[in-house]
Write a structure and sequence with these properties.
The chain has about 725 residues and is an alpha/beta fold. It folds into 5 domains: about 100 residues, GIY-YIG endonuclease (3-Layer(aba) Sandwich), CATH 3.40.1440; about 60 residues; about 180 residues, P-loop containing nucleotide triphosphate hydrolases (Rossmann fold), CATH 3.40.50.300; about 180 residues, Rossmann fold, CATH 3.40.50; about 90 residues, LOR/SDH bifunctional enzyme, conserved domain (Alpha-Beta Plaits, 2-Layer Sandwich). It contains 20 helices and 30 strands. It is globular and about 90 Å long.
């Protein structure tokens, strides 16, 4: 027998399988999708079995070892990987790698193993009962009485007593695998739908459409509908995948799902340790669970009988991976749903313009929830013009926001403050010569972080000690401009010395379990205010939050991107939805320098339909999605001149190959240099998707042997 093995030699080269002989002793272990250890020149590599042949070839080398007991990539996932590889114009091996947790990735450095624990069990119950009538050792009696109920880990027992009992032949030690993720037991809670939720549920299950868009205002109870839909799927013996956009959302939603479904859940997201993800993945392979909850990569859960895929907050850009392979989990969900004839439910209070357009056209089933559950009312939203506030001397907090914070503190209610910039200040500028402190490796300003007293680049990770000396004019005149979450927290404490604060951003959530700790602490009212970036804007449910303040609503609006208004509306609507979710009325204060912008004005009325009507007119006029698809080609290289020359060649090649499609560029990207690599971008607006995919794969083949430049492809990118 010979097999074709896909190994990761160089992620930028063509996918190529290599053939090996299988020794007779290993033939019964060979299945598609398993990993094997193979000799490759002077190296030993891991790879995936993609082909099996009955012939024997004496000229081929033998494989060294079959690594997996079971196929970790089943036939469906193998075919899915090939489709994603073609559609995202990327290498197949990188797609397969992205499907797996680290413990399964094809790498000789793989060190993740099963966690085994020493357990103790009784040998003969009758002998034990007889011994209990004779012994006077309290410790031995205690150990045996515990073991009469159940086998126990050695760590929970008196070790010296266990050793004595082993010598007497009464108990035995044995190794048992133990999963690393601590799943706390929770009380069972039965979900009951209200009338609006029941109507939405019935419309979904009776729909003949493959994709359902559940457009429900914040707090309308979409999660309860998700759980009822999964109940139905489980009753049919099928499986369910639930995707959430932010790791910060997983603790709350997992708690709710565990209270309903108990032990039938596996969790997959990047905040877990390598060992925990390895264990959770094996639970799925072993058919020990029927529900997977997680972030983007959970869409690849190795289920074989999927009944439903639910994507919560479907508008979130986190479902699209921003590095190779640049797959979109929503599009992968459509492919898997089609394979298993399973419904895909997209849930959001602010769906993407593309999704809502498809629903309005009838391609998706549109199901709407227009009121909050439990008679809760949507919060009152006030928009504050900060140009007027600055004239009054109010730079960071408007007078109304300060009075509202004081009022909530007096009432012992809670506050959320959103500032979509981490760090202490946005940049450092010289007051004397006007120069801005930039990263030496990237064309981007450095951000000051007060907790570490460092200036950091948020692109390449460069960091330097803080200084006030301008590198251009050498004067002591560098000053911090703008503000981020750190500074907002500091100023808030100055104004309200007794306030208890928590901060949630990338800097405070690097430690394992930090998201959960912050959310739990705030839920237990151990803090009065939670200051954070957009990770606090979606999905979180805090009954005591009655005030939401948006410090600067223009952060995204000012970006040169055709989706900037949509993302601004999404963010403001989502964070507004965190206020007044219980019986207490909510209030939202949005501070902005652009109060007349339609995305900000319409967020006040919670009227998504009106926003959609405004936005769709602009999209049509400028031929942006949903009226076209977009492909982004990014060309990078260390030599500026050579990179622009190669970029021009690619642009000319494209224009010669297409007639009706629009090709823009090459032009300098949003950041022209990152980590000393110069970048140029070419944008294609098109209608014929397959034609462009084929053309981009041609360009990939033509450029992949050029070591001086790197060409990346992004189909329907998150931003331009």
């Amino acid at each position: 027998m010979t097999i074709d093995v896909l190994v990761e030699i160089n992620i930028n080269k063509k996918d190529k399988t290599f053939s090996y002989n299988v020794p007779e002793t290993m033939i019964n272990e060979i299945y598609l999708g398993k990993r094997v250890l193979v000799p490759f020149g002077k190296q030993t590599l891991e790879g995936f079995i993609l082909g099996i042949h009955d012939k024997q070839d004496t000229d081929l080398k033998d494989i060294i070892k079959v690594i997996d007991k079971d196929s970790i990539l089943n036939k469906e996932l193998l075919e899915l990987g090939k489709r994603i590889s073609e559609d995202s114009v990327t290498n197949l091996v990188s797609v397969y790698q992205s499907m797996l947790p680290k413990g399964y990735k094809a790498s000789i450095k793989n060190t993740v193993k099963e966690k085994t624990v020493l357990y103790v069990k009784l040998n003969n119950i009758n002998n034990v009962k007889e011994y209990l009538t004779k012994t006077k050792s309290k410790n031995q009696i205690e150990v045996l009485n515990k073991l009469l109920i159940n086998d126990l880990p050695l760590r929970d027992l008196n070790t010296s007593s266990v050793n004595t009992l082993v010598e007497k032949g009464l108990v035995t030690k044995y190794s048992k695998e133990e999963y690393r993720l601590n799943n706390e037991s929770v009380d069972k809670v039965v979900t009951k739908l209200n009338t609006d939720q029941e109507n939405a549920y019935n419309k979904i299950i009776n729909s003949d459409k493959d994709v359902i868009l559940l457009n429900g205002v914040t707090g309308s109870g979409k999660t309860e509908i998700y759980m009822s839909l999964i109940d139905k799927v489980l009753s049919e013996g099928k499986e369910a995948i639930v995707l959430v956009p932010e790791i910060s959302l997983t603790p709350q939603i997992i708690q709710r799902f565990r209270s309903h479904f108990k032990e039938e859940i596996a969790v997959l997201h990047s905040a877990l340790s390598d060992g925990e993800r390895y264990d959770e993945y094996r639970k799925i392979i072993r058919k020990e669970v029927k529900i997977v909850i997680g972030a983007r990569s959970a869409i690849f859960a190795p289920f074989t009988n999927i009944g439903i895929i639910i994507i919560d907050e479907e508008h979130s850009n986190t479902y699209k991976q921003d590095h190779n392979p640049r797959y979109n989990a929503i599009e992968v969900a459509f492919l898997r749903g089609k394979t298993y004839n399973a419904k895909v439910v997209l849930g959001s209070a602010t769906p993407t313009i593309e999704s809502y357009a498809r629903a309005k056209k009838g391609y998706y089933e549109l199901v709407e929830l227009k009121t909050r559950a439990n008679n809760a009312v949507l919060p009152l939203v006030n928009i504050i013009d900060m140009t007027k506030e600055i004239r009054k001397g109010n730079k960071m907090f408007s007078k109304e926001l300060l009075l509202s914070i004081e009022d909530r503190l007096n009432k012992q209610e809670q506050i959320l403050l959103l500032i979509n910039k981490r760090g202490y200040s946005n940049y450092l500028m010289c007051e004397f010569c006007g120069s801005v402190r930039k990263c030496p490796n990237c064309d981007i300003t450095l951000t000051y972080h007060k907790t570490s007293d460092m200036n950091r680049c948020h692109y390449c990770g460069y960091a330097e000690n803080n200084t006030k000396i301008c590198s251009d004019c050498k004067k002591d005149s560098l000053r911090q401009m703008g503000y981020g979450t750190e500074k907002v927290e500091e100023e808030l404490i100055k104004l309200f010395p007794n306030i208890r604060t928590l901060r949630m951003d990338i800097d405070t959530t690097t430690k394992k379990g930090s998201h959960e700790e912050i959310i739990k602490s705030f839920m237990n009212h151990e803090a009065d205010a939670l200051i954070g970036t957009q990770m606090i804007a979606k999905g979180l449910d805090f009954p005591l939050v009655t005030l939401v303040g948006v410090i600067n609503a223009d952060t995204i609006l000012n970006l040169p991107d055709f989706r900037s208004c949509e993302r601004t509306y999404d963010l403001l609507s989502q964070v507004s939805g965190r206020a007044g979710r219980s019986s207490l009325p909510g209030k939202v204060i949005i501070q902005t320098y652009n109060p007349d912008n339609y995305s900000i004005k319409l967020s006040k009325t919670h009227n998504y339909e009106e926003f959609y009507n405004e936005e769709i007119k602009i999209r049509k006029k400028l031929y942006y999605p949903p009226y076209s698809f977009i492909a982004l080609i990014k060309i990078g290289g260390k030599d500026f001149k050579e990179t622009i020359n190669e970029s021009n060649k690619i642009g000319d090649y494209l224009r010669n190959k297409v007639e009706k499609e629009i090709v823009l560029g090459p032009s300098v990207g949003s950041v022209s240099r990152i980590n000393n690599i110069y970048y140029f971008e070419i944008i294609i607006k098109y209608r014929d998707k397959q034609k462009i995919i084929d053309l981009l794969n041609e360009i990939k083949s033509l450029t992949e042997n050029n070591r001086k430049i790197k060409v990346e492809f992004d189909i329907n990118p998150n931003s331009l």
